[in-house]
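Aim 2, interim progress. The first record below pairs a target sequence with its C-alpha cells.
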Amino acid sequence: MPAFVLHRIYDIMKEKGMKDLSRIGLYGLTYKENVDDMRESPTLQLLESQEKHLGNPLKVYDPLITENEVDNQYHNLEEFLNAVDMVVIMVGHDEIRQNMDKLNGKIVLDARNIYDGPCYHL
C-alpha cells in the first residue's frame, strides 16, 4: 500500500499543478494508542519509501504520538494544517472526524473514506 499511496499523491499533485512535496501532510502515524512497534505503521512505511527516493519533505501529524518519531512531525493540528496544501488522511482518529471543517480549502486524499467533502480516494 505505501508505494501505491505515494503514486496517488504524485498523480493528484500533477493534476493540481503542485510541485512542492513539502506542502503535503500525512494525518496519522498509527492506528491505535500504545503501539508496540511503530515500524508496523503503514504511514511510517510510506515515509521510509519516499525518503529513499526524495528525501523527507512530507509533513506528519498524529494526535496520539507526542514524541518525535519522524522529521517534519507536528504536535498541533492547526500548525500542521497551516503548513500544508494537501492532507492525506492515513488514519481515522476521532480528532480528524471532529475537525473535518478545518480541511475546507485543502486538497484531501482520504485513504480511510471518512471525509464527506470533495476529496480523492485511493
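The second target in this work package is listed in the same format:
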Amino acid sequence: MKQILTALAFFFSLTAFAQMGEKNFIDKNYIEVTGKAEMEFTPDKIFIQVLLTEKDSKNKNAIPEQERQMLQKLQSLGIDIKKDVMIKDLASNLKTGFLSKDVLLSKQYQVMVRDGKTAGLVFLALEEIGISNASIEKLESSRIEEYRQEVKIKAIKAAKDKAALLCESIGQKAGKALYIQEQQIFERPYAMANVMMKQADAAGGAADLNFENLKVEATVMVRFEIL
C-alpha cells in the first residue's frame, strides 16, 4: 500500500512539473481579433393564429360550424389538417351584463404553412367564411440549427482573415489559434411591421404575404499566435 501511494505521489509530481514546464499561451506573442458574420434566410414555417369565438346564450353551434368550414377551406388549400393544424387553447369566460349573463366561448388554433403565398390564401379563405380574428404568430426556419453553425464558421474564418491581414502588414504571420470564445449569436426576431399583404391583382391572382428575411449573426473572439 505504501509503495502504491509513493508511486502515485511521484506520478502527480511529475505531471505538475511537466505542466509548469509548458509555456502558457498568455506568455506567447499573440494577436486578438473579433470575427463577425451574418446570414439572411427565408422562413419556411409560418404560424398563423386563428381565434374562434361565440356567445353561449345566442348560438351554441357557432364554433363547431366555424371550425368545420375552416378545416374544409384549409384542406382545399392542400394543408394537412392533422399535421399542420393544432388546437392551442379552449376557454370560456362569464360576462355579466345589465340584462343578461353570457358565457363567451373561444377556441384558438395554430395553422402552419410553408410560404407567403399559402399564408395569403389562408387569410383570404378565413375572411370568406367570416373569421377575421387571425394573425401571424411567428416565423421560423426548419434549417435554423444548420444556419447557426454555418454563421459561426464564417465568423471564425473572418477572424482568421483579419489576423492574417494585420500580421502581414507588419511583416509577420498569424499562426495557430490559441484561444477561441463565442461571444454572441443573435437572431433578428419576427416583427409585424415586416409583413405586407398585396391585394389581388386585376388578373385575379391571390393575395401574397411578403416577409422580411430572418437573420442570424455570430461574433467570435480568437487569439492567434504571432510567428
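Confidence is low (pLDDT under 50) at residues 4-22, 192-204. This observation will shape the mutagenesis plan for the next reporting period.
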